[in-house]
Amino acid sequence: MRSALELGLCALLVSLDGDVPMFAVLDEPGSGRPPRLPSDRLDIDGDETLELAVRRQVTAHLGIDVGYVEQLYTFGDRDRDPRTAHGWPRVVSVAYLGLVRGTPTLTPGARWAPLYSHLPWEDAREGVSVLAMQAHGACAGSGLGAGPRSRVGADGHGLEERAAISFPMAPGKWDEYRVLERYELLYELGLAAESGGAGDYGPPLALDHRRILASGLGRLRGKLRYRPVVFEFLEETFTLFQLQRVVEAIAGVRLHKQNFRRLVERGGLVEATGGVDRSTGGRPAACFRFRPEVRFERQAPGISIPRGG
Amino acid sequence: MRSALELGLCALLVSLDGDVPMFAVLDEPGSGRPPRLPSDRLDIDGDETLELAVRRQVTAHLGIDVGYVEQLYTFGDRDRDPRTAHGWPRVVSVAYLGLVRGTPTLTPGARWAPLYSHLPWEDAREGVSVLAMQAHGACAGSGLGAGPRSRVGADGHGLEERAAISFPMAPGKWDEYRVLERYELLYELGLAAESGGAGDYGPPLALDHRRILASGLGRLRGKLRYRPVVFEFLEETFTLFQLQRVVEAIAGVRLHKQNFRRLVERGGLVEATGGVDRSTGGRPAACFRFRPEVRFERQAPGISIPRGG
DNA sequence: GAAGATGATGCTCACATCGAGCACAAGGGA
DNA sequence: TCCCTTGTGCTCGATGTGAGCATCATCTTC
Q1: A115, A168 contact by CB (below 8 A)
Q2: Nucleotides of D under 7 A from a protein CB
Q3: What distance in Å separates residue A267's CA from the closest CA in chain B?
Q4: The pLDDT of residue A199
Q5: How far apart are CA B210 and CA A230, in angstroms?
Q6: Per CATH, the architecture of B5-115 is what?
């Protein structure tokens, strides 16, 4: 019997509800299965490009159009779908990241889920989470350290050493970009629900979709630095503090208000509209809009992240 | 008739011959076709993961083993292989980047080709090349500027504006990371041989393989910053100037010797072996070796690139 | 053996960037 | 009015970066 191959496309759509990052999932009520990312097969004849295929599928599955889209990663492990071992075709999936403004209503069966509920250790806005501390400890205490019994990761590091980088104990050492590394470490340690973990490291998603979620969050955080992606989440005009809240939500880190302000203004990313927003509580805030021209003036028109609250 | 799908894997193997970056190509002598990157189908039953599939293929096609491997991008446009329009299966290719130390002998039919011969404008070690200047000029003079007739890229920019970022005229503004952007700009302008160009912008490769080459070079340059990938190209021990030559070769830019030295030593990336190399001509150079432990000490154990010669 | 060439190495200086904090401005509510 | 809240401007020191001068240790040449 000749095995079959299928090319899947998988969409991670991220949006923002206030300062809560969300992503679109599909439920299968009553099945007891975890939620999954919207995904479907490539239409070999119809879909001109992979990106267009994703856009088509998003419209079909969720009933919305998506603006910014970029390719994330292609997942093709033979055992990524357990059914493949039982005669199902092997599914290679190309994952895409898309950004959506606001949280528009989705087709029934689909909903926006809070992103950090599935990656709870990634939200370090109120300080590096207890979970992250536990993860560090679980590593060191797992007896899987640098000794001869230790399992060794792709880089040839012991788990304990990898934990020291991924889940640093020293305050201020938290690296918000190592999202995928952290998830994979938890997975290998058997702490993630997908790998048999009973600990409270967040509810699982179907198949390897939580890995895709981690990839996407890492990519998005990295992208902040050198592309003006934040504005995909914001309205036409906004206050600098709203902008800051969005960056903080994505980066999962608190920022220093005055420095953030300095950075954004110096970079020429935004220009004042002249209007003010009185709904802030204290002194009215000046309104700004994004300046598309920055892209021709600066090499990295993103928001490099000034640490500290 | 139901159309068929094929999953291809494509390997971009980069190595270094002295200070000349090379990559592995396969020739089809007598066919008149341009050289191509080693690529092959996924073995649906045999290949456990995509990465292992690439390793298997590299061994089969080139007769060598490869150390560092990472996924680059997945190419799936319907028209990427012109044969698809004539009944051939649609081929979606996952491209991988691999790094090889030295230039080991390859299987007959394969050879190492100088990377910059196919992307000549990317080697700015002797100053930003005349080609890059021409490219800038070709854009501005193409009548495809910001006017109503202008074609518009993915970001919504006119070609002229994109040229200003990709091929900057101001000295010191050259951004060595925008490799892919530059190639795509030349492609869209019809200057690349693949898009009908007669200008001397380097010989083409098969299909979209030059795009893959550009992706890979861009990724490699980016990776230098935050991962110690340079050492994949170096012997066990080396002098700091040899290290610098390797970084320069990849980045395509000349560096300031003393600052490079300061950076590498301060970063703790290397440690002195105590030995010296007398073959340099002048004062003997101290020999160094890579310190694998940096990965646990520094967040970004790479070589950020200090400009200027 | 001395002079000069060549490349390695150490150091300084000006300047930009960044983290952190003080102080004040401009509004609202008690 | 006082006080609380948020926005905004500015300063200061620590650190990083681009650029250049000076010296050192070897080889080559005269």
Answers
A1: no
A2: 4-11, 17-21, 24-27
A3: 16
A4: 72
A5: 32
A6: Alpha-Beta Complex (3.90)
